[in-house]
């Protein structure tokens, strides 16, 4: 069977995380067996390890954040390394370095295939979807139950309309060169964490979400150390939870009314089409 479409998956992974890379390769062997009519390629991108960066670079990034009025706290070394890894890939994509592929998907090395049999249908849907940014995983399980939206007609994905603060994680997503360029410019204007989707996707009213991957691969000592360092760092900057949750509730109310307006517009369109057919 000829394969007319090509999808490139770029996995951000620390060079020393050999066990995670092996696990990712096993997952993609399963994916290639499940999807026979699409050419699937996997490429590793050596992640930036924040602790390897000089203190001058780390300080400069946090000074830039402070000057842009973007931060309530400095970024940890792990967050800076993660941000730079995604930023460098966005730059590569925006420069059309992967123009011979129909879709490029960025993943992190702790994902695994979701337990369902829709991967073929989902990949075909992703290839033909006009959206410039598509989630293939992400968001906490708690957030998933609160994000408003509607299921696509082909039943392959969920169109998210919810408040951007609920969009978390940068573990799996697809972007076009045009969208990658936008993210680069936004990140340089107001440097932030890689999954600050409230800021990075602020101009989008609807975003497709495919439950293609789940997050939570095998642990290794490097990743555990990074996570422990991040938790210890964040403990210094506790937020006022009342203030934070009040803002979230207000965002939910706004999103609810936006959804009602969208549904009313759809209902009016259906009525108009029915009248034309009469």
Characterise the protein shown here.
With 278 residues, this protein is of the alpha+beta class. 47% of the residues lie in helices and 17% in strands. It contains nine helices and ten strands. The strands form three sheets. It has a five-stranded mixed β-sheet, sandwiched between helices. Strand 1, helix 1 and strand 2 form a beta-alpha-beta unit. Helix 3 crosses helix 6. It is globular, with a radius of gyration of 20 Å. 28% of the residues are buried. About 4% of the residues have low confidence.
| Count of alpha/pi helices | 9
In percent, how much strand structure appears in the residues? Answer: 15-25%
Residue runs with pLDDT of under 50 for 5 or more positions: 218-227
For the biggest sheet, the summary is:
5 strands, mixed
Q: Can you give keywords for this protein?
A:
10 strands, three-stranded antiparallel beta sheet, 278 residues, alpha+beta, globular, five-stranded mixed beta sheet
Write the layout of secondary structure elements.
Elements: E1 5-13, H1 18-34, E2 38-46, H2 55-67, H3 77-94, E3 103-108, E4 111-113, H4 119-128, E5 133-135, H5 141-144, E6 149-151, E7 158-160, E8 172-175, H6 177-189, H7 197-200, E9 207-209, E10 213-215, H8 221-234, H9 241-277
Parallel strand pairs: 1-2, 1-3
Antiparallel strand pairs: 3-8, 4-10, 5-8, 6-7, 7-9
Helix pairs in contact: 3-6
